[in-house]
């Protein structure tokens, strides 16, 4: 017969074991956030762009939910990546983040309200490798930081104003002597995958959930990749985009060509925008094909490294309890509209891939409602059970991820470049683009004209739509803290 004491011990041990299993079952999910640089939405094979080879991103899309209409909200300066990545840290819309950027070190060091810090406070071990480009010391934000990269790999003079057909091209994407992504002897994308593999192996042996911020420099220029990836895209097979132009007719108005050179508050000359200097003006089909070849090669090379990361996650045993989000900081023009940068309001430069996989995420589904890529902040905070501060503006995508019939998070998408250069609003299938300094209006039907070739602004039948969208944009300006007075440039469109 079992004594009362022994029975008590048996019950106690069983209770402890049950509690231990409960704790294991309730372990918070891990989160891996993978962000590329300059990657347009039309750069994933699974999204219908069959010219590109992206088996690892296709693998993510097959196993998760793809948001087909993910946007960056814009930038307050030419380095669009700074604005995009800083919005990721604050979780706030563009103009609020511009103000926060002035006090970012205080927010990070004293208030500890940046995205990874909120996850850290929720019990996460946080890890970062790759590109940062945010105006705060990264060590203040993450537990672990390795191989921190600058805003962009160093470009060389040979990498600009090229190629010119019939002339010797001194630059090569796989010539390691040009440095850039090859600096240090091993391609930066491969180093990042090494870092991620090592950390996954370490983190899987710990009890704490982890948050990984993996920031590729690819496919930002200098667009470099091993030769075998360049050889995957023979130049004669690379297509020129449907919206190709030798020169963009508004290149000066949008501040992407001749930018004022200031000294002591006065204009002393002009300089060319860096991105737009990569190929000669006017653009040629040969130059555009070459740049696209190198762009594709770099994406496919990065894709292979993402496959290594996904394999490491599978081998660690943590895959079933890990959310993976893949996106980019913004898109890029690579010959479209005669442009080579991202300082514009076209889809190729504002829209990015956005894929989510993980527990309770449906496999192989798409969501066509427009979102912002920075919604990743609120989404991961909700998935982690972390605090979502009142000042966070971007919205959680958790309802949309789990239920295709969930309400769309936004009924309008807003975009801006610099304080006075460009504005955009998208409502439904229509997008209105404004160049205030020149008084230019552009209107596109994205459903009928996804390449944004046919400007409808001159069609009298669209006047009412333009005015309605303009007024809606003004409403968003007030809501988002955009102080540009559009009525001065467009008095005929403004409500009286």
From TrEMBL:
Residue ranges of every copy of the Sulfatase N-terminal domain listed in the record: 29-386
Keywords of the record, alphabetical order, are: Calcium, Hydrolase, Metal-binding, Signal
Q: Which InterPro entries match?
A: Alkaline_phosphatase_core_sf, Sulfatase, Sulfatase_N
Q: State its cofactor.
A: Ca(2+)
The cross-references to Pfam families, in alphabetical order and at most eight, read:
Sulfatase
Q: Has UniProt tagged this entry with the keyword DNA-binding?
A: no
Q: Which GO terms describe its molecular function?
A: arylsulfatase activity; metal ion binding
Q: Where is the signal peptide?
A: 1-22
Entry similarity comment:
Belongs to the sulfatase family.
Q: Which PANTHER family match?
A: ARYLSULFATASE FAMILY MEMBER (PTHR42693), ARYLSULFATASE G (PTHR42693:SF42)
Report what the protein is called. Sulfatase-like hydrolase/transferase
Query: Which organism is the protein's source?
Result: Pelagicoccus mobilis
